[in-house]
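lol ok so funny story. i was supposed to be doing the assay writeup but got distracted and ended up predicting the structure for this chain instead. priorities right. anyway since i did it might as well share w the group, maybe its usefull for someone
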Amino acid sequence: MSEFLVWLSAVDSFMYPCLVVMIWFLVSFFKMNSDDRWVAVTVILYGINDIVTSLMAFYKMHNLWFYNLMLFPQFIMVITLLIKNLYSRKLQLVLLTGGALLILFHTINLLFLQGIHDFNNFTYIPAAAWMAVCAFFYLREQMEISEESPFDKLLTWFAFAMLIDQVGSIPILSVLGWTDYIQTQHAAKLWDVVELLYTFWYLLILLGLVWTRSSLRSALRLR
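and the output, tada:
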């Protein structure tokens, strides 16, 4: 127990909202509708990745290979979740085709190019950009076409969080992944920004849960 508390006191800031969100999803999973369950599974997948990699770092184990492998299920879940809720069939086809090509490229990258033990920036950064693109088109349709309030859907909060996190972190990952800046003493400051964005990612999803699962929405609308 004491070792768990030591780990908990040493984790990055995003782990605290991550644990809260995961517990909420697990407790309320069977009370959710189909779309919300898919959001829950996707966020829990991210949470499992964060917990495992945090524990590996805590015990001084190399964890980049785990990030590289987890990109497969994370990327597939995110783009599938967002694309299947689009109205435009043509747009769905374009985004799915691009996603499939990125999955293929990531597989080739792992096997023949950068390998499994280094940060796969050749494919990780384009995958992050593609998830942001999918989130953007989902949000655009919700704002322009949907007749109901977009933010009454948990998926909208998820897409909004994904768009902000990816757009904010892609330039930083590009600087750290494509240059020698990561070797400098100032690189840690950029990682702090990435950590802040990821914390905000979980907090937005948590806010979405509070908004869609509590009386807060109705109370604010009555004012």
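The chain has nine helices and no strands. The CA atoms of residues 109 and 130 lie 17 Å apart.
back to the writeup now i swear
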